[in-house]
Write a structure and sequence with these properties.
The chain has twelve helices and no strands. The chain has 212 residues and is mostly helical.
């Protein structure tokens, strides 16, 4: 079941500073305790009252169908609540939902809006998706220069797809100055990041299933 992997990792990343993050927020404590005893509805009830980080986690329960019936409309609702209060992970996922029409009406302008929020907070996946929208002219002005800027930001934060896209643009002179040397540089970065991603996926699997 996906929730056995995704939710523990999400809780770990969201609440890794357990004493600091939860000290002033009893709803995060109660939500985590409810989750650990298998009371998923109780966990969600607490998380939605815990501010943007808790609302993001609540959205993930519905997004993945983790211990509850999958409900993408509710997932989008809680992601939006969290995103409006500055949670970049929720902003990114809300962007993907608007881009693909999942749980909400497809709206590339809304997708770009939420990707902007997340990308400006340093989310590399959002920066890559935003660059792609600019490259294709979906929901935003068709602008290869802006696309390259976002690809570059995403690549510098470790996104292999962005590095590859930037390399291809440089190699072909696709809307930006052709530069084979820079293209080769970004192809190398893309290759290195993909290798690193494969290695890290093994680590994530071990963290999510320590007794496997």
């Amino acid at each position: 079941m996906r929730h056995k992997i995704i939710i523990p990792l999400l809780l770990f990343s969201t609440l890794c500073l357990y004493p600091t993050a939860q000290a002033g927020n009893p709803h995060l404590i109660s939500g985590t305790q409810a989750y650990e005893r298998g009371d998923y509805q109780g966990a969600i009830h607490e998380y939605v009252q815990a501010g943007p980080d808790g609302q993001y986690v609540a959205g993930m329960f519905y997004y993945n169908g983790s211990g509850v019936r999958r409900d993408l409309t509710k997932a989008a609702f809680w992601f939006k609540k969290a995103a409006e209060e500055g949670n970049s992970g929720a902003s990114y996922l809300l962007g993907t939902m608007y881009e693909d029409g999942i749980g909400v009406d497809k709206d590339k302008k809304q997708a770009a809006k939420w990707y902007h929020y997340a990308a400006n907070s340093g989310d590399a996946k959002a920066a890559y998706r935003l660059g792609y929208l600019y490259k294709m002219g979906n929901g935003v002005t068709h602008d290869h220069q802006v696309a390259a800027t976002w690809f570059r930001k995403a690549a510098k934060h470790g996104n292999a797809s962005a590095a590859y896209s930037l390399a291809m643009m440089r190699e072909k002179g696709d809307g930006i100055k052709q530069d084979h040397e820079k293209a080769a540089k970004w192809f190398r970065v893309a290759a290195e990041k993909r290798v690193s991603s494969v290695e890290n996926s093994g680590i994530r699997e071990r963290l999510s299933c320590p007794n496997c």
